[in-house]
Amino acid sequence: MAAVDFTTLDNVKQYLNLSNTTSDAFLSRLISAASAFVVTWVKRDLLSASYTEQRNGNGSCRMMLKNTPVTAVSSLTVNGHSIPASTQPGISPGYWFDDKMLYVKGYSFPNGFGNVTIDYTAGYTTVPLELEQVVIELVANKYKRRDRIGEDSKDLGGQTVSYSKRDLSQDHMDLLSIYKRVVPIV
Question: Based on the structure, what is the number of domains in the chain?
């Protein structure tokens, strides 16, 4: 499994009830493509990574971070001054965070352009199971449709069977919308 893949070849093969290795390379490529598709659809990285954001101060004591869920903040600099971590969040001076926001007490994020720098870690350390299942189902659908590329329907003994060309079902879109970045963070 490559670093960006949201599932394994074994999980996809189990879902498809395949035991041979004939299609392993093709399925592996589909896994990578489906994983990248999900990241593009939700408009954000999902797996844990380190980030540095240069932000405009907003005159507030809190700031929403671009990548979530936030799991660690290693440094905060405002107007060139390092802000320490709070030893008692909400009580003692400094910064603290939750899964989406960075807060300060005894300090603020004064209005300015690019005057706030935040180094932090965000994302999931393991792929949420529902996202993995979406990728597995996307791969399975692509795998099963490979022999009817471009076909809308087929006549089977006087009956017409129509094929859906949608990659994502409504259930998939509803689930992915939970993870989707909908408002740009500036």
Answer: 2
Q: Residues 56-89: pLDDT tens digits?
A: 999 999 999 999 999 999 999 999 999 999 999 9
Q: Are residues 68 and 130 in the same domain?
A: no
State pLDDT tens for residues 128-182.
999 999 999 999 988 987 766 556 656 667 776 555 556 778 898 888 988 988 7
**DSSP string of the chain, one letter each residue:** --TT-SS-HHHHHHHHT--SSTTHHHHHHHHHHHHHHHHHHHTS--B-EEEEEEEEE-SBSEEE-SSSSEEEEEEEEETTEEEPBPSSTTTSSEEEE-SSEEEEES--B-SEEEEEEEEEEESBSS--HHHHHHHHHHHHHHHHHGGGTT-SEEEETTEEEE----SS-HHHHHHHHTT---S---
Cα 96 from Cα 146, distance rounded (Å):
50
Classify residue 150: in a domain, yes or no.
no
Which structural domain, as residue segments, surrounds residue 100? 49-122
